[in-house]
């Protein structure tokens, strides 16, 4: 992922600026905030350190030198490691206000296993947008106050690597 971000930064004329490719640390940061599902989508009060880190991501200051400013992006992408052994990809589409999880083999983890990892994303991303991006993105309108919609792509919708002979 680092090489993809670096290449996009160095060759910005051929890579779309509408995408921000975040690092695995972003997903871990989302998971570290405690979420109260009975609180109608409201997150518990985060620490100052947490807030500063989220601001750095949203402003494009992190990952250092290669982060994308969310005010200029329509899509956020980051890999996420489940149980230290299985990778999925999060894709937040800000224009359509949804998060899609790309999972190339749904036999490993069921929906009930994935969803707890999605909950912080669908609730905290709108808070980040509201606090750090909304003043520069009037196109988001009222939907920025609502949780993101969630979809999980099936393996048949994801390009697969085939063996070459």
From TrEMBL:
Short name of one Pfam family: Peptidase_C48
Domain Ubiquitin-like protease family profile: start-end pairs: 16-152
Protease keyword on record: yes
One of the GO biological process terms: proteolysis
Top-level division of the source organism's lineage: Eukaryota
Keywords associated with the record: Hydrolase, Protease
GO terms, molecular function: peptidase activity
Keyword set includes Chaperone: no
InterPro entries linked to this entry: Peptidase_C48_C (IPR003653)
Record's protein name: Ulp1 protease family
Organism listed in the record: Abeliophyllum distichum
Record lineage: Eukaryota, Viridiplantae, Streptophyta, Embryophyta, Tracheophyta
